[in-house]
Amino acid sequence: MKYIFILILLATATISCKKEVAPTPSVTNKISQDSMVKNIHKQWKFTVAVSNPSVNSKLSTWEDWRNYSNELTIAPNASLTNLTRKATALVEKSAVLKNNIPELYNKPETKARLTLLETNIQRLDMFLELEPLNVKEISGLLASIQKNTSSLINQFDEFEIKAKIPKETGEDQLHQRIDTIKRATLNAIPQE
């Protein structure tokens, strides 16, 4: 009887020793979260390239633009808190871009592009706050932010090109709103 008891005890001890320790879900989530953050960090490569010297001179005097482009091009450290802080700072920098737009660029086309850029940056900030991280969506937003920034620079370049086109005589009068009452002559009004 003693031997049977000892054999059963040994069998249960060896079976329990062979069990592998499974990682807890929180450890697995932490590892996958870190790999996602590293993946996002690798994709954080923004460039703000201005080829036109006149656009470059106007953008260098526009302080809000300089702050935004500096914040955008400097990559954060590879941690979720740093990415979140960077996205929050970008939201603040992009929100003030609409306030002091240079006169030549202060047009509806610029404001629409700035609004789209601001929306994409706000979405990036929101997606970095969610758990688990959606790397596919965040990667798309990073590409969209780069595309929006390049689109803004291209629009500024287009404004510079259009400003250099000489105006024909009388073109300014064509662009003014026509006030029919002021232009009406007394003889043109029918008499009863």
Provide structural commentary.
There is one protein chain. By secondary structure, this protein is mostly helical. Helix content is 69%, strand content 0%. It contains nine helices and no strands. Helix 5 packs antiparallel against helix 6. The radius of gyration is 31 Å and the shape is elongated. The mean pLDDT is 80.
SS elements, strand count? 0
Unreliable stretches (pLDDT < 50, length at least 5) are: none
- Gyration radius (Cα, Å) is 31 Å
Average pLDDT reading: 80
Level of helix content? 55-70%
The biggest beta sheet, please?
none
Quick structural gist:
The chain has 192 residues and is mainly α.
Give a topology summary.
Elements: H1 2-18, H2 25-43, H3 53-61, H4 63-73, H5 80-95, H6 108-129, H7 135-164, H8 171-175, H9 180-183
Helix pairs in contact: 2-7, 4-5, 5-6, 6-7
Task: Offer a few descriptive terms.
elongated; 192 residues; 9 helices; mainly alpha
